[in-house]
Amino acid sequence: MLQIYTGNGKGKTTAAIGLAIRAIGAGKKVYIMQFMKGLAYSEQEVLRRFSPQLRLDTTGKPFFVAQEGMLTPEERAAWGDEVVVFPEGKPPADYVALLGEGFAAAARVALSGAYDVVILDELNVALFFGLIERKTVEALLDEIGSKVELVLTGRGAPDWLVERADLVTEMKEVRHYYAKGVAARRGIEN
Predict the structure, then answer these.
(1) Strand ranges for the chain from DSSP E
(2) Is 122 exposed, middle or buried (CB count within 10 Å of its CB: 0-12, 13-18, 19+)?
(3) How many Å apart are CA 23 and CA 25, to the nearest integer?
(4) CB under 8 Å to 104, separation ≥6 — which residues?
């Protein structure tokens, strides 16, 4: 099955990790590739302890990306050097290459038959920003068929991907303390 966890609400990666834990408990092997993330998130430490039942890889740079016009001047100032802003449709070539290499590696693992569940965390966001091309993802979906349970997370899942999925969960933000200026908290958001 193809599962998608998307939407602007909190909990997409958390839900995928919950599924990973459940799968490990049932004797399944899990592979997670986290796109656009370095090794800076609290869950990564504990997930690596599940080896060899779970393998975790990451690909990305230690900064956020945004298209021009997506951030207010205040948000852009708050991010400082931790954000790279680019014109729509023209993401940084080095970042595209890095995520392309990461996707190719994840695809090889997904198609290897070594894992029962494959989670491509934040792939929807990489698609949204044009860091990974639709045709590349579609090629993997065509080839993988029903060999593994495939979970794709991230805001902004494109319509074509939602239409193709067997399960789509949209996390809806009703209220978030970010709006009150509360920064990401270790162990809760990162």
Answers:
(1) 2-6, 30-35, 54-59, 64-67, 83-86, 117-121, 149-153, 167-170
(2) buried
(3) 5
(4) none
Query: Among residues 111, 106, 102, which one has the least CA distance to residue 144?
Result: 111
CA dihedral 24, 28, 29, 31 (to 10 degrees): -70
Cα 1 to Cα 124: distance, rounded to the nearest angstrom: 17
Degrees (nearest 5) of the Cα angle 159, 190, 124? 15
Residue-by-residue DSSP string for 97-147: HHHHHHHHHHHHHHHTT--SEEEEETHHHHHHTTSS-HHHHHHHHHHHTTS
Q: Can you give the pLDDT at residue 61?
A: 75
Give yes or no for a cis peptide into 52 (omega within 30° of 0): yes
When pLDDT is averaged across residues 5-12 and rounded to a whole number, the result is 95
Query: Has residue 67 got a pLDDT over 80?
Result: yes
Distance, in Å, from the CA atom of 110 to the CA atom of 150, rounded to the nearest integer, reads 9
Band of the pLDDT at 65, cuts 50, 70, 90? confident
